[in-house]
Amino acid sequence: MNEFKHFINGEYVASASGKTFDSRCPVDNSLIGRVHEAGRDEVDAAVRAARAALKGPWGKLTQAQRTALLHKVANRINERFDEFLEAECRDTGKPYSIASHIDIPRGAANFTAFAETLANHPTEGFRLDTPDGKGALNVGHRSPKGVIAVISPWNLPLLLMTWKVGPALACGNTVVVKPSEETPATTTLLGEVMNECGVPPGVFNVVHGFGPDSAGEFLTTHPLVDAITFTGETRTGEAIMKAAAVGLRNISLECGGKNPGIVFADCDLEKAVEGTMRSAFVNCGQVCLGTERVYVERPIFDAFLTRMKEEVAKLKLGRPQDPQANFGPLVSQEHRDKVLSYYQLAVEEGATVEIGGGIPDMGPELNGGAWVEPTIWTGLSDDARVIREEIFGPCCHIRPFDREEEVIALANDTDYGLAAAIWTESSSRAVRVAEQMEAGIVWVNSWFLRDLRTAFGGAKQSGIGREGGVHGLEFYTELKNICIKL
């Protein structure tokens, strides 16, 4: 029986209340272990440990020393690759073939990439003329923001947690992480790695629990937390934004999406099908950047739909260890119920179910898991709830369009603005349409191609702020100006 305790000030700590909750494997609903739920006392201890570490050894390290430590952390994750892979796939149910190429290596690389990028970025300097003719020199200086609360999601648990922890630590901050209650394992395991690499106690802390009246609320309302970074659904982001208003704490929110894919008739059809397949169905559709609305220019609509259905039919559902499997279960029974409710709603709203739409028969050993069929719909009206609301499952709706202006309006007709994908072989059209997308990131003839030096974040209800590369400096550091009279 695994037991997931909090990691506070370099030690694993049980909840004083004794409260725990079950962690279950979505593959077959078997019990993985019990997770300790943090109360106010555990959260307070973690925040105070993080605050003390700022004044202790961590705060006295040079940038080069911090960078060296973060390189050690990345290397140690890779040395313990199999342990992280097993823990991640047990929590999420995703195939080893996917997690071994994306989640674990990129999760480790976040420490080295951000340490190098942020360590080598200059600050500003200005020479000011003064009436006495001697002048003044203004020098920008960045210092750590302080204690950062990291609220990370369950769909890419290690990768999206280190996407925040990596730059936070590179800038000299300390962190208290609250991973999703669905996926506690790899964040907990990272505490061991921090100790093995000599990261001082209190720099990296982990508290487990839920949102309201639990670890999430206690952490985001704690007065000694200086900034909050969150990835998750928009409603939770709104609650965090309200909490951060007390004390005027800084926030970075990456929230929901209802992302469009636009396929023009002049595209490379096979590239468009391959890219749209990944964007709709990779990670069982549980990707914030995923495509749930696909708009296809009418001359190639039938051909595109046929090819998509052919490729969906080839998806191989199976256990994470199955080398042939490329499609796993949803993360939990609760999330499966949500996705299935949209499958039913789509039918009620008049959709044609082109493929999927139900629960697969996985056999007696796996039928207790959170499995759903990958699904394609056509025929829904543009005001249908299935078109308007984020589902976060392995599904998409494909609709024809006739004019460029029409599809731009359709793509932007959403409360969200996280990502978009455009498929065309016309460079002028690609630029013209991309510039009109109301989204934080627009891919042309690709999807999920990420350069960590570039800005990442959402527009409208998809979030606030930008992270990635030097843009993370604006969130993870405090910029002061030092004015020196000469």
Automatic annotation (TrEMBL):
<feature type="domain" description="Aldehyde dehydrogenase">
    <location>
        <begin position="12"/>
        <end position="482"/>
    </location>
</feature>
<feature type="active site">
    <location>
        <position position="254"/>
    </location>
</feature>
<dbReference type="GO" id="GO:0016491">
    <property type="term" value="F:oxidoreductase activity"/>
</dbReference>
<dbReference type="InterPro" id="IPR017628">
    <property type="entry name" value="OHmuconic_semiald_DH"/>
</dbReference>
<protein>
    <submittedName>
        <fullName>2-hydroxymuconic semialdehyde dehydrogenase</fullName>
        <ecNumber>1.2.1.85</ecNumber>
    </submittedName>
</protein>
<dbReference type="Pfam" id="PF00171">
    <property type="entry name" value="Aldedh"/>
</dbReference>
<dbReference type="InterPro" id="IPR016162">
    <property type="entry name" value="Ald_DH_N"/>
</dbReference>
<dbReference type="InterPro" id="IPR016161">
    <property type="entry name" value="Ald_DH/histidinol_DH"/>
</dbReference>
<dbReference type="InterPro" id="IPR016160">
    <property type="entry name" value="Ald_DH_CS_CYS"/>
</dbReference>
<keyword id="KW-0520">NAD</keyword>
<keyword id="KW-0560">Oxidoreductase</keyword>
<dbReference type="InterPro" id="IPR029510">
    <property type="entry name" value="Ald_DH_CS_GLU"/>
</dbReference>
<comment type="similarity">
    <text>Belongs to the aldehyde dehydrogenase family.</text>
</comment>
<dbReference type="InterPro" id="IPR015590">
    <property type="entry name" value="Aldehyde_DH_dom"/>
</dbReference>
<dbReference type="InterPro" id="IPR016163">
    <property type="entry name" value="Ald_DH_C"/>
</dbReference>
